[in-house]
Design a protein that fits this description.
Blueprint lengths: L4 H7 L6 E4 L3 E5 L7 E7 L14 H18 L6 E4 L15 E5 L9
């Protein structure tokens, strides 16, 4: 995906403030944070979103969830709690067409999901 913003970040063509990285996933600070801690977690291989999970193998999907826990630990929010969110599609307000998860925390989050 030559035009995909997150593919460019994963390839190092666009800089990002990295929190965690391994061979298959990358986590970096969101440039428009919605909470004190707000990190984006992406697979390095392109998948459009949650409806495109067949583009990824089960190892990558597992790596995403394990990385979310590690990012929360690195941010110091593992014990106090955090929210893991993935927007899907236009109505779900997915702004970048690359599967990604928002890791939000560092403060008491709203009871509302939106």
């Amino acid at each position: 995906m030559n035009e995909c913003l997150f593919c460019k970040i994963a390839a190092g063509a666009i800089p990002a403030k990295t929190v965690y990285e391994n061979d298959v996933v990358l986590a970096f600070h969101d440039i428009n944070p919605q909470s004190k801690a707000h990190v984006l977690l992406i697979p390095k291989k392109h998948a459009q979103g949650l409806n495109d999970l067949n583009a990824l193998d089960d190892g990558t999907l597992s790596a995403l969830l394990r990385a979310a826990k590690e990012v929360a630990r690195l941010l110091g929010i593992q014990d106090s709690g955090y929210r893991l969110v993935s927007n899907c599609g236009e109505d779900g307000r997915q702004s970048v067409q690359h599967l990604h998860f928002h890791i939000l925390g560092g403060e008491r989050l709203s009871d509302r999901m939106v």
